[in-house]
## 1
Amino acid sequence: MRRSKGVSTFVATLILVSITLSLAYVVYEGVSRFAPPEQDVFTNQVSQVGGSPALVLVVVNASSPGTPLAFEAGAASSQVGVLYFDGTRYGTSHQLCLANATTFFSVYTGDGVLRAAGNGRAWIDGYWTDALEVRSGWQEVMFADASSCTVTGPDGTAVAYPDADISALPIMGALPSSSFVLYVPTGGLSGSFLMVFDGSYDRIA
Amino acid sequence: MGATTALHKSSGVSEVVSSVSMLAITIAVLGGVALISLGSLRSANGVLLTGSENAASEAGVLLTVVATQSNSSGTYVWLFNYGWNQAGLTSVYVGGGLAQGWSSSCSALQPKEMCVLQLPPGTHGTVAITFGARTVSLSV
């Protein structure tokens, strides 16, 4: 009899706890709609690596994994088009290369040789080269002073902008990630760079 | 008499088990909530801590180019670490692109020591030598 009473007390308490947790969840769901999105913390590292135009290496570490929505250089945003630097300012274009400017963007590839050929200089993942053995993921590509160009993936398919395998966001590696590496042409000038995430942004320089 | 004692004993055990179970459930629930709510704080703290440690370490890496020489066997750059922390060469850029075919004794450059970087013959242009976030730039 007593044992039965103890069990029923235990069950009753469990039910009460379940009801309390359910109510707490309902209240949390309601309140969280009005709460601001979680804010990430970022640390940045910017290194001048020289060249013409002068390039900077940008390394961003975030407190939680994510995928950047856009990269903004000066008044130009990768959400509008392919970013370029013409020696004095940043802009956007709907072409992968431009005469008298350096365009920079990224290409998604599998393992193999990525080719970036044009009538100017080509840069792939840190190297001034028109062909590079790459690993699967996003590869950053630049064209300097090229009025015509082609980008060919390891499978032999030429990619153009806009395309699912082309991103105006210049980035290297796998996404989502909590560490982002990219190179930006600056011409030695101090630029204003911003990486935009869902609900937060990182002012790099 | 014996049956009543056994019943009391059984009831006591049941009460104890029920209390311990409730305690365990409460600890599990509160622990879960704490883990979830403190997770972002911990990761943010980790990023800031790593960043601060790197910045403090890099502050103690002070490098200068002592000499350069170019000849038929290659281009040589001598670097001196006059800081108080060890420096490790991470990459070499020539003209803004990663260089290939270089060798160095700078993988662990101790304070108050010198190392040499050898680049392939015919290298010319701007050279950027990175030691973590520290960059030494020169023209050859």
## 2
Amino acid sequence: MNTLKLNLSWLLLMVLTFSGALMGEYAQPSFWITVSIAGITALKGRLIIDEFMELNQASPVIRRIVRGFGLVVPALMILTYLLGPELAAFTQLPE
Amino acid sequence: MAIPARIPGNKAIWVGIFAELTEFTLMFLVYFFARINHPQAFHEGPQKLSLAAGTANTVIMLTSSYFVARAVLAMRRDQSGISLRWLIAAFVTAVGYPVVKALEIRWNVSQGLTGGGDVFQMSYYYLTFNHLVHVSWGLLGMAWIMLRTGFGGYSADNHSGLIAFASYWHATDLIWLMIFPLFYVLP
């Protein structure tokens, strides 16, 4: 961790946050919008995990678990966009 | 001899953090389960919430997290006075989170958005209130860390308590980064 990397990480996190907010204001549902939002979410998560938490220098077990957590929501965003109705049918009890 | 794997802070805080991540992973699964079964409610939901409030709280969490990281960096350089100033900045910034949340809930209620509303609103209140509880614990922890730092409890050689708190605070920030797009952004 050094000052320059922290400052740049915070700046990038702000840019990504406001980009996401703009999408929330104007975007309509589409595959690429979903992928963009998922990508922004994953990238922000990775910046926090590697630069703020410094897990890139930590125990591999901790690093993998937390990095994995940071990918759950982005992956489910894309998965449920692509397979929403099929997954909904799969989760219903049979009549 | 193999170098032991580094655990930031201490083992106890990681038990807490993993419990926190597990709890929110389960809640995210419930969110997606509700979303695929009620796509219309989740498509219309974000338009009913205040994007400004959600964005403000994201900026608050990220900036407070950044200040905490600067406090750790200063302590590592044996500048405990500067570290305390960064922690005070983090605390003052983070107090904005419950304030924005209170204003947001007041606005929600005036718009008829309550916990007894549709499935989107129920998920929103359940997840965000839970997160607010975690932020509140974090604020109490931060106050304790500030006291310890102010009374010379940490040094460049021994500040694992500060790193343990920082890890928890960053994890709570990370969880908010997942919640924000789910309720305020994703159409």
## 3
Amino acid sequence: MESTLIDRALMRISHEIIERNRSVEKLALVGIRTRGVPIAQRIAKNLQSIVNQNVVCGSLDITLYRDDLMRQTVGPQPILRKTEIPFSIDDQKILLVDDVLYTGRTIRAALDALVDFGRPRSIQLVVLVDRGHRELPIKADYVGKNLPTSIHQSIQVHFAEVDGKDEVLIHETPNGEVL
Amino acid sequence: MTAQPIRNTFSENKPVSLPSRLRSRNLLSVTDLTPEEVLLILDTAEAMKEVGTRTIKKVPTLRGKTVVNLFYEPSTRTRTSFEIAEKRLSADTLSISSANSSVVKGETLGDTARNLEAMAPDTIVVRHGASGACHLLADICSARIVNAGDGMHEHPTQALLDVLTIREHKQKMQGLKVAIIGDLLHSRVLRSNLLLLKMLGANVVVCGPTTMMPPGIDKFGVEATASIDCAVEDADVVMLLRIQLERMRGHFFPSLREYFNLFGMSEKRLKRAKSDVIIMHPGPLNRGVEVASEVADGPYSVILEQVSNGVAVRMAVLYLLAGVDEETGE
């Protein structure tokens, strides 16, 4: 999946968001660190260009809410990044944004984190790629692309803002390792 | 993307790649840390600060972990700071102070440690009047040990919060002139700060009465002077140390008033420093002894920021130590 396809998917999602919510009234975007943040910012820009209204945008680090954090079986401890939600989420319609939806555990952590910030009216989930293999009952409301994958593959999303280039890559993991 | 705050740097433009976790399972001394690990703690602390700004100031990270705060010496700031940090991370905490514990019945530190160990806490935060007390605990206990001040030896989390405060104001450490003035002899804050500041590339000048100059201070690679004016000249950071009357055996100076006249930080003296100097003090303040009230409450003072940063740094340390691998951790 390359740059133009990513742009088109995000533009389609932006239209769907307006279609479903009728307006951008009370909408707020929250991107999950790291790659959810540039997606949220791009959707905010798209919404601005479509309806000419500003939609607030924040970023959320879910590290402190992970369910595998203190278990020794996981690899290195993820580096904690800043959470910046410079607005009240009370009674807002939150669009939670991430790059890849896989097991659903990140989203579970993000939902826990969000309710610590207030009581939103609703939370809708936006993902660029849904690769399947859910381990929790979680479903995305807006999907850029469904990519059925094997659990022996890994998906990497790169963004110009973070990685210098827009692309979605699928790798076979060495030795059929399950990620 | 929005401009990132300055991270991962000691100098202005040399990014460092961060390790993903600490190597040592205990924080007994600043020397347990590498410069990269210090950066990891500072960056983590910066992220932790955000938790304190929420309406619900709590994250579930250390849920189900037990942290014992073992305080053999009086402490308000450090103990409260650790307790708040632990509670914000959802750990179960209990605090033992020597006055209402078996210490008054004559139990030794080693026995207290063995008994605590039998109750399987995950982390023990210890403050003790004897230098090296936390090392003894680390030998006995399988819990992670955090040194919250041992005698005249070290107080690593204080030095870390000081460095975090300096970095927030100066955006770098390399080449900064840091003047540390006061009771050098009895100060564990001094030792931890000297080790850490030198590790990060700051130039340190220490100043105090010659009677309070620790022997061998030159081995730390710092400049020592008895002239406060030389110490303050062009300083980026002035760190004042408390006169620790409770640790003094003998007379080090004639009177507190004379001490203030010779070594106290007044507005007039401060004029010699850089125009953007910051004034730091680990607390508790002796107003009119090591610092004039106008300076402590003045525009250059970051003393209360240090206190706020203390909570964030301790959250970072507790969080990162909890993540140290059981097998590879020393």
